[in-house]
Amino acid sequence: MTVLQLSEANIIGTVIAFILGIFIVPLVISFSEKQGLMDKPDERKIHSHPIPRLGGVSIWVCTILSFLALIILSYYPHRSLLSGLLLGSSLMFLLGLVDDIFGLSAKFKFICQISIATIVFFLGVKITSVFLPMIGLLDLHPLVSYVITIGWIVGISNAVNFIDGVDGLAGSVITISSVTLGLIALGLTPTDVVISLVAFILAGSMLGFLTYNFNPAKIFMGDSGALFAGFLLATLSVMFSMKTTGYKMYVPLLVLAVPILDITFSSLRRILKGTSPFVADAEHIHHKLLNFGFSQNKAVLILVAFSIFMGWLATVIAAFDTTKYFVYAVIISVVMMILNRHAKIGENSKE
């Protein structure tokens, strides 16, 4: 049994990112309102009035500033793959930001996403082998490695973007997935400081954003935030698989179960209907729950509970201290509920 301990860097990075988010998100909200950068209601969306859509700016800024703060405190982990993570995620953020402001075609965004993922692939973040039952570890041909890696990174990036349709859902799932990946990375031998540090900083940034994103949301993360976070989760999971063997290589499938299931069923449904899998609709899992009569908060709670369970299951397969991981997941969910309550009280006091 591996005894896990959060390093000072993980704790400090998470706290800094969270505190920065508390102060930066309101500035982004104010800027978006003044510049008219609002997400307007339509037949596919469930909100009834325009809401700022540049939450990704605060998430990216908090993440990068937290890294800068750790550099000043001499906590920067020097590894080549980290540069690929920061460069690729920042490029993905910029792509989403341009789309949030000006609007881009799905085809153009897809090409850009493949290009960004290709850069990261050649910087060393790649799936070079897979474990197959009764066969064992199978080394992949470079071309096959490229196709699988690019498909995973682009797929997960968009999958996270797809679930961003209900207040607090995407942010909550991203937080749980980040914490789970971070904790599991600490249990690797040797511990992967890059995966854990990036994951915890992302979780801190997302928690700061969630304070203003729970129903009723004051801001949306937009494509910039969803693609940025999705890209980080995708690349971190690739790095995790690179350091594990056997069935443990597939742990990220459980950690990211909610977005994976949603994009899989959404793509299959659209293809069977003869439409493009990249054309947005109002038939995602969260839409189904709303149509069943659940409120936004209950729909989020259901999917968050499922995400927590799958995260716990991932730790079981990873053969770490499952009880401790489950406690961490419960703590995170309680924190999010407290923030949700705080957001409601703040909203009601204005009315």
Question: What this model shows, in words?
Answer:
The chain is mainly alpha-helical and 351 residues long. The chain has one domain (8-125, 132-344). Helices cover 69% and strands 3% of the residues. A two-stranded antiparallel sheet has the order 1-2. It is globular.
Relevant terms:
two-stranded antiparallel ribbon, single chain, globular, 13 helices, mainly alpha, 351 residues
How far do the termini sit from each other? 52 Å
Order of helices and strands: HEEHHHEEHHHHHHHHH
Q: What oligomerization state is this entry in?
A: single chain
- How are strands sequenced across the largest beta sheet? 1-2
Q: Give me the Rg, rounded.
A: 19 Å
Helical proportion, percent range:
55-70%
- What's the story with the biggest beta sheet? 2 strands, antiparallel
Please tell me what the overall shape is. Answer: globular
User: How many individual domains?
Assistant: 1
How much of the sequence lies in strands comes to: under 5%
Mean pLDDT: 84
Uncertain stretches: 1-6, 347-351
Structural class: mainly alpha
Number of helices: 13
Number of strands: 4
